[in-house]
TrEMBL record:
Family under the similarity heading: Belongs to the GrpE family.
Domain of life: Bacteria
Name by which UniProt lists this protein: Protein GrpE
Organism: Pseudomonas delhiensis
Location, primary (coarse class): cytoplasm
Subcellular location: Cytoplasm
Annotated region (Disordered), positions in chain: 1-26
Coiled coil: none
Keywords: Chaperone, Cytoplasm, Stress response
Assembly notes: Homodimer.
Length: 187
């Protein structure tokens, strides 16, 4: 064989190796891209799974915390009635003293039970009106309290684990109206 033929043959032999090498490099790059995409998808799936797990734990925690919400709400009128019974009865009346003591003990048991289950009363007498925890039933002029303060509580509100179960029904103070001077005072 001549030197030219050997050179041509060697060039022919190099080209398939070079073409195969380019094809191999392209294939490697493609596989690396697919691997990066698979890793990214795997991380996203793992993050989503962690989010689902965290949300499920939060839902279970809320269910435990607020499972008694409806039941507690149904018991509050009983507490209100016992408190009203004590307000309406005279502590000095000897005829009803045993009954009054029974009501006081029953009410104390109710309050202890409510406290044990994180049910806290909202009794805002004298505090500033808070629309998030109070429901204004009326307004009343007051010279003793600043305008916007709670003058009277018709019904206590309650919080269950810090969340409002029932707003307090209140009377809110307002500034006394200034009466215009009468004709006699002007003269």
């Amino acid at each position: 064989m001549s030197d030219e033929q050997q050179t041509q043959d060697s060039h022919l032999n190099e080209q398939p190796e070079q073409v195969a090498g380019d094809d191999l490099n392209a294939r490697v790059l493609d596989l690396e891209e697919q691997l990066a995409a698979a890793k990214d998808q795997s991380l996203r799936v793992a993050a989503e799974l962690q989010n689902v797990r965290r949300r499920a734990e939060q839902d279970v925690e809320k269910a435990h915390k607020f499972a008694l919400e409806k039941f507690s709400g149904d018991l509050l009128p009983v507490v209100d009635t016992l408190e009203r019974a004590l307000e309406m009865s005279s502590p000095d009346d000897e005829a009803i003293k045993p009954m009054r003591e029974g009501i006081e003990l029953t009410l104390k048991m109710f309050h202890d039970t409510l406290k044990r289950y994180n049910l806290e009363p909202v009794d805002p007498h004298g505090e500033p009106f808070n629309p998030e925890h109070h429901q204004a039933m009326a307004m009343e002029e007051s010279v003793h309290l600043e305008p916007g303060s709670v003058v009277k509580v018709f019904q206590k509100g309650y919080l269950l684990n810090g969340r409002l179960l029932r707003p307090a029904m209140v009377v809110v103070s307002k500034a006394p109206e200034q009466t215009p001077p009468s004709i006699d005072e002007k003269a």
